[in-house]
Amino acid sequence: MNRSHVVAVCGSLRDGSYTRIALQHALDGAADLDASTDLIDLRSLELPVYDADANDAGDSDELRERIREADSVLLGSPMYHGSYSAPLKNALDYCGFDEFENTTVGLLAVSGGSFTVTTLDHLRSVCRALNAWVIPHQAAIPSVNSQFEDGEFVDTDIETRVRTLGRRAVEYATIEPDPYTVESAENVGADD
Question: Which Pfam families does the record cross-reference, listed alphabetically (predicted)?
Answer without folding.
Answer: FMN_red
